[in-house]
From TrEMBL:
InterPro entries: Cdc20/Fizzy, WD40/YVTN_repeat-like_dom_sf, WD40_repeat_CS, WD40_repeat_dom_sf, WD40_rpt. Pfam families: WD40. SUPFAM superfamilies: WD40 repeat-like. PANTHER family: CELL DIVISION CYCLE 20 CDC20 FIZZY -RELATED, CELL DIVISION CYCLE 20.2, COFACTOR OF APC COMPLEX-LIKE ISOFORM X2. This is Cell division cycle 20.5 cofactor of APC complex-like. The lineage of its organism: Eukaryota, Viridiplantae, Streptophyta, Embryophyta, Tracheophyta. It comes from Trifolium medium. Gene3D superfamilies: YVTN repeat-like/Quinoprotein amine dehydrogenase (2.130.10.10). WD repeats lie at residues 102-135. GO terms for biological process: anaphase-promoting complex-dependent catabolic process; cell division; positive regulation of anaphase-promoting complex-dependent catabolic process; protein ubiquitination.
Length: 161
């Protein structure tokens, strides 16, 4: 090991930390999720050692995945203190405005993972299921290339008199 000393120690969560995820487009930003007595997603500046923001999700945070193509964060939730909470929530970054939520497991979400291409997210639930989701769309640049390609191909099939 390079060093046995830690750089920072964040103690703001009020329960066990259940989830961690580095932001793919800002290497200083780390997201963390707290357990049942905390229910918060916290964003940290890991370079400065400071808290950026804290969002009460009304449920235990068990998984976090950043969208690799858009500035969004997906959270997976366990035990809830509110009927309003969802098992999975999508948050816009950096405002942390809730974009939407899903409730498709019959029990709590225990873990989230993302495919290497960033398009598919997998959730593992307390209902003993693994579910695959197309929550994150393809990057905007890919969509433009596809539409240009489609237009070019369409032009080749046009009949000119």
């Amino acid at each position: 090991m390079y060093s046995s000393n830690f750089l920072h120690c964040f103690k703001d969560h009020r329960a066990a930390v259940k989830a961690l995820a580095w932001c793919p487009y800002d290497s200083a930003v780390l997201a963390s999720g707290g357990g049942t007595d905390d229910r918060c997603i916290k964003l940290w500046n890991a370079q400065k050692g400071t808290n950026i923001c804290s969002i009460d999700t009304k449920a235990q945070v068990c998984g976090l995945q950043w969208n690799k193509h858009y500035k969004e964060l997906l959270s997976g939730h366990g035990y809830s203190t509110s009927a309003e909470s969802s098992q999975m929530c999508l948050w816009q970054y950096p405002s942390m405005t809730k974009v939407g939520g899903l409730d498709r497991h019959s029990s709590r979400v225990l873990h989230l993972s993302q495919s290497p291409d960033g398009l598919t997210v997998v959730s593992a639930g307390g209902d003993e299921t693994i579910r695959f989701w197309e929550i994150f769309g393809p990057p905007v640049t890919d969509r433009r290339e596809d539409s240009v390609l489609d237009n070019l191909l369409s032009m080749k099939t046009l009949q000119i008199r």
